[in-house]
Amino acid sequence: MKHSVYCLLFICVDALRRNPVTCRATDADVAAVVKEWLKHARDRDGGRARRAEVRAGVDLASTPRSPPRDQ
Question: How far does the chain reach from its first CA to its final CA, in angstroms?
Fold first, then answer.
């Protein structure tokens, strides 16, 4: 595992251990969720659609953008 991913995983595990609702999650559970989240991060918030528009030659400045999603 890359050092940066390991550091991020450590931060997530540390934060989850402080939360009473998630303190019992195993390291393996946390690692699986973090890996899945990072795997799809590039497509989040319309990333895939924007890349397709760039490939198709669509002017991104003229297309309206939706506001960021609340999380």
Answer: 28
Query: pTM score > 0.85 for this model?
Result: no
In 3D space, the residue among 40, 60, 59, 58 whose CA is nearest the CA of residue 48 turns out to be 40
The set of residues, in sequence order, having a beta carbon less than 8 Å from that of 4 and lying 6+ positions away, is: none
Domain-by-domain residue ranges, the chain? 3-56
Tokens of 56: 């198709």
| Cβ proximity of 54 and 61 under 8 Å | no
Residue 60 clears pLDDT 60, i.e. is over it: no
d(CA 34, CA 28): 10
